[in-house]
Amino acid sequence: MPNFAIRFLTGGLVCGTLTHCGSSSLGPGNMGGPSVEEREARIANEATGDFYYGRRYFVEKTRFWGYLRKPGQPWSRAKLVIFKEHQQTNPDRLPEDGPAGQRYAFDNNYEYRIRGYFTGRDAYEPNSNQFLQEFMLTNYDVVDRNPGWLFRPNDRYDRFRITLYPR
After folding, report:
1. End-to-end CA gap in the chain
2. Which of 49, 74, 104, 167 could form a disulfide with 96 if both were Cys (CB 3.0 to 4.6 A apart)?
């Protein structure tokens, strides 16, 4: 029985350590940006209307677009979405092998004012194995090309795996 308990505890510690290593809560973030207070003040004073604020979030091989939230809401309430582009193509609908600055995902972490509506359907994104809300895009405007961190100042962006989650 003591050997089982030792193996169980050791296994638990190893698993806990390995899953925590990929967390964005360890170490400083790599996205820069404002202080928490500055971000909260900006959201409290932002324009409102019949639109969403969107943040482009690109991860290699995925086809979701990014996060959307209603004006005045914190980013922690944002939803990761897939755009339905029947009325408007998304801002970075460019070739994946184009020149730098003119290729798909050139706008990673740009903040947009997004117009459209949730269709009420979920869409499957196979590379992240997620069902995400589908959003019919009708228009967009760039708000900020360098807004910094998304959910927390210690956010860490990795273009090869999903590291940014609302909490």
Report:
1. 39
2. 104
Q: Is the pTM of this model over 0.85?
A: no
Q: Which residues of 63-99 are buried (b: 16+ CB within 10 A; e: fewer)?
A: ebbbbbbeeeeebeebebbbbbeeebebbbebeeeee
In this predicted structure, the answer to whether residue 85 has a pLDDT above a threshold of 50 is yes
Q: Is the pLDDT of residue 7 over 70?
A: no
SS3 state of residue 120: strand
Neighbours of 156 (CB within 10 A): 18
Provide the pLDDT for residue 101.
78
Tell me if 135 sits within 8 A of 122, measured CB to CB: no
pLDDT of residue 27: 63
Domain ranges of the chain: 30-144
Q: Check if the beta carbon of residue 91 is closer than 8 Å to that of residue 55.
A: no
